[in-house]
Amino acid sequence: MTYTDTADTDAADTDPAGTDAYVPSQRRIDRERFKRTRARRAASVAALSTLVTGVVLFLVITNSPGWPRTRETFFSAEYARKALPKVLEGLLLNLRLLVVCGAAVLVIGLLLAIARTLRGPVFFPLRALATAYTDFFRGLPLIICLLMVVFGVPALRLQGVTTDPVVLGGSALVLTYSAYVAEVFRAGIESVHPSQRAAARSLGLSSGQALRYVVLPQAIRRVVPPLLNDLVSLQKDTGLVSIAGAVDAVYAAQIIAGKDFNYTPYVVAGLVFVALTIPMTRFTDWVTARMDRRRAQGGTV
Amino acid sequence: MSTTEEAQPGSEGPVLRLESVRKTYGRGTVVLRDVDLEVAPHTVTALIGASGSGKSTLLRCANLLEEIDDGAIFLDGEEITDPRVDEDAVRRRIGVVFQAYNLFPHMTVLDNITLAPRRVHGVPRAEAEARAHELLERLGLGGRAGEYPDRLSGGQQQRVAIVRALASRPRLLLLDEITAALDPELVGEVLGVVRDLKEDGMTMVIATHEMGFAREVADQVCFLDGGVVLERGTSDQIFGSPQRERTRRFLDRIVEAGRL
């Protein structure tokens, strides 16, 4: 490491005489050397322990009595090749569900959150309804909600109501997820300091204008990371519409697995979901990091 | 250019008048009891007193951010505490500057300033921005229009907040401890702006701990203590020869602390 160029100009900038060339002291050099040694030692310890853990896991699994059988049932290359095209075909349905349900969830969730923050006795019914809705659907297990909607609604034999399992399954996802997302939005709205609302109102903005121009923009910015987290979760849960009989990635795998009692297609479907989720998670991290950076920039005052 | 509205109807009478205003918080904590106050056009009224004496509450009530329990408040002769009055319309005529600036962090300086003129007063964007630039220039903030509030110093932020309050051409300006959150070396730049506004004839009510400034700039000084206006008068009367024992003690403490 060298300290010549940049450090020198920095020092020269702040030095009124402008003559003093900065030379790092022995103390600094010793300190840096110690830090480098420590970092090297830590890295080698980490590498070694990772390697040991990996080898141990590998040996334990491959030496287990059932391993040859398990490898055949869960990790068969032949079945993987056979299942992949079908699973990917099914995945298209999951993606379509994600996009449509995701959009619906964001809109309904935001409306619910706004309804819950409305003040004044006039809005009591709306507020109570929104509260009851979020309480109920946040508590109800998704799988039960799905079963009720997917099998209960067609059982009613209502005229003009669809019996399409994809639409019904998607509706159940929206019902549950909009309750989650409403709470995320509400937390965001309540995190905006009341003085912001006071400032907006004292400028003459109406309650609705204060919400639209001042409170919501700040609230939404704050809840982007948890919202993306919920979308990742929704992405996985689109796989649950398979219980309604819609042929998505999970159901496609199930069809093949059921025929020959080989579970490799499930592993394939699982990996495909993971592969889909990783970019989304990285995107979430990136957005969060970017927002933190912005805040840090502003925090110098 | 004047920052006040010209030829206001009824500008002969007081701009702001409080009549026996009473305000309590929670269960019977009386913050204001029987407060009377008159603010004449183009004058500056300073509210002084210890923390918790009711200065800020008085300003918040005048702007209808707090609902009063009893009494009445009049703006240009119209009772604004009448529940039938449109509160938003009242607030449009009053500018407020807060202790903590309360700028909108997600908007640039320019958007902070033009929000109310554009959305509330329906001023076209170009016109609103032209006025914003003009005011920024006057307050020594030219070139800061595109910045976000977080990038500015406290003194700059508070001056932006003043510009934001002025942009709607208010009839009355309420300043709530606007220098209390500032580093000492930044206080001067903000007080200088207030001095200029007085020159322009802006009607202002100022809650402040800056006694030297209050003495210099105020036409009327009110000493609040325990929710009542214990003593009022010209700044020479209050600071020169206070009549009440409590006022004297308060001012003595301020002098001891080196603030006067």
From TrEMBL, chain A:
- Lineage of the native species? Bacteria, Bacillati, Actinomycetota, Actinomycetes, Kitasatosporales
The Gene Ontology biological process annotation of the record reads: amino acid transport
Q: Does the keyword Isomerase apply?
A: no
> What Gene3D superfamilies does the database record attribute to this sequence?
MetI-like (1.10.3720.10)
> Where does the record place it?
Cell membrane
Any GO CC annotation of this UniProt entry: ATP-binding cassette (ABC) transporter complex
Q: In which family does this protein belong, per the annotation?
A: Belongs to the binding-protein-dependent transport system permease family. HisMQ subfamily.
Does the record carry Secreted as a key word? no
Question: What organism does the UniProt record list as the source?
Answer: Streptomyces chattanoogensis
Query: What is the name of this protein?
Result: ABC transporter permease
As one GO molecular function, the record gives: transmembrane transporter activity
InterPro entries from the UniProt entry: AA_ABC_transptr_permease_3TM, ArtM/GltK/GlnP/TcyL/YhdX-like, MetI-like, MetI-like_sf
Where do the ABC transmembrane type-1 domain residues begin and end?
Answer: 91-284
- Judging by the UniProt lineage, the source's domain of life is Bacteria
Task: Spell out the CDD domains in the cross-references.
Answer: TM_PBP2
**Residues that span the membrane, as ranges:** 42-61, 95-115, 136-156, 263-284
What membrane topology does the UniProt entry give? Answer: Multi-pass membrane protein
UniProtKB/TrEMBL annotation, chain B:
What compartments host this protein? Answer: Cell membrane
Which SMART domains does the entry link to?
A: AAA
Q: Which keywords does the record carry?
A: Amino-acid transport, ATP-binding, Cell membrane, Membrane, Nucleotide-binding, Transport
Q: Which GO terms describe its molecular function?
A: ABC-type amino acid transporter activity; ATP binding; ATP hydrolysis activity
Q: Which Pfam families match?
A: ABC_tran
Its record classes its membrane topology as:
Peripheral membrane protein
The terms describing its cellular component in GO are:
plasma membrane
Could you tell me which residue ranges the ABC transporter domain spans? 16-251
Principal location class: membrane
Q: Which PANTHER family match?
A: AMINO ACID IMPORT ATP-BINDING PROTEIN, GLUTAMATE_ASPARTATE IMPORT ATP-BINDING PROTEIN GLTL
For this chain, the family text in UniProt reads: Belongs to the ABC transporter superfamily.
Know the name of this protein? Peptide ABC transporter ATP-binding protein
